[in-house]
């Protein structure tokens, strides 16, 4: 086999791998549950080139109990770090203590009204084009992300939206 033929075979194998991954992601997007979830944006310290947003996803916890920290240490977040199995119910992202399939580490938080909420520990990375102008955030604006929940692994982002007094507005990157 000549060197150029080996190069073509290698290129064909690599192309097949990339196309099969793309086909799997498109299949998951078409067949797996999708949900919009409110997020919290933060500035990560990652050596990735390009523009991206690192988003921590809020979810509704089920089957978890909040453990109050001891008095000297009022910020014991590690006490409320739990593994949550992800699902979609009533168009809401649910994190359950029991289950199977995809999941993630979450922080259980107690809200001022006594209810519980959960915030994902690991971020969902959303890559945005260099030319996209992100709308300026105003008081009361919430950033939301549409997610696909794969059978295994972390949620995959699809698109972003802004929720404010003017309504729910999906962002278009083109």
How would you sum up this structure, described in words?
The protein has one helix at residues 3-31, and strands at residues 34-42, 52-62, 81-89, 92-96, 103-110, 116-120, 124-127, 142-148, 156-164, 167-170. The chain is globular, with a radius of gyration of 20 Å. A 5-stranded mixed β-barrel has the order 2-4-3-5-6. The relative contact order is 0.20. It is built from 1 helix and 10 strands. It folds into 2 domains: 1-31; 34-170, no CATH class. Helix content is 17%, strand content 41%. The model has no long low-confidence stretch (mean pLDDT 86). β3 (81-89) and β4 (92-96) form a beta hairpin. The N and C termini lie far apart (45 Å). By secondary structure, it is α+β, with helices and mostly antiparallel strands.
